[in-house]
Amino acid sequence: MTNKPIILAVAGSLRQHSFNQRVLKVAINGAEKAGAEVIHINLNDFPMPLYNADDQDKFGFNEHTLRLQALINKADGLLIATPSYNGSLPAVLKNAIDWTSRTNEFYQKSDLYLGKTAAILSASPGSLGGIHALFHLRDILNSLKVHVLPNEVAVTFVDEKFDGDSARMIEARTKQALEELGQSLVERVEKSRTKAAVSSHNGYYAPQPQWVM
Questions:
Q1: pLDDT band at residue 197, thresholds of 50, 70 and 90?
Q2: Phi and psi, residue 169, nearest 5°
Q3: Above 70 in pLDDT, residue 211?
Q4: How far, in Å, CA of 156 to CA of 89, rounded?
Q5: Hey, what CATH topology would domain 6-212 get?
Q6: For the whole model, what pTM was predicted?
């Protein structure tokens, strides 16, 4: 039985050589170095239909939604990377949040997210690093009463920071920023597990974006 903080890590991309999957892995390294147990999932392994309340009433929750809910319930913190699709987060990530935040026989609405701590990051080959998607993701998580860390990382020109299609990051400053984000999440989770002070917080922190050029 481990007493390590448990972090659930996910990227909102289904692409095989996704940049956001790769920057997420760097942040995961930081979280693991800080002492966390990290559960890294791929949304390809959790296929869900587009959320429709009528389908929920008729068919309930599929096995993949229930598995994902169980993992969120187990986790102390969330580490989420998102690409920017037309200035917002991808449908697959929003859909996963929509399904898992719904009430069923196991969980009440938003029970899985209430009081959790999250760190968010993005990456893009462009000059903004996907920052617009982070604005929307933060708003969504805040609406679920998640404590989102004010520090976030948007990796610009990400195609220049890896060794081809490999997961090896070749740019030291970006690597450090991502690992520090993972570490910050673990530190915040540990504080929230030992202090009740965060329970009175409304979950909103003014974002402090860090662009890694």
A1: very low
A2: -85, 130
A3: no
A4: 16
A5: Rossmann fold (3.40.50)
A6: 0.90
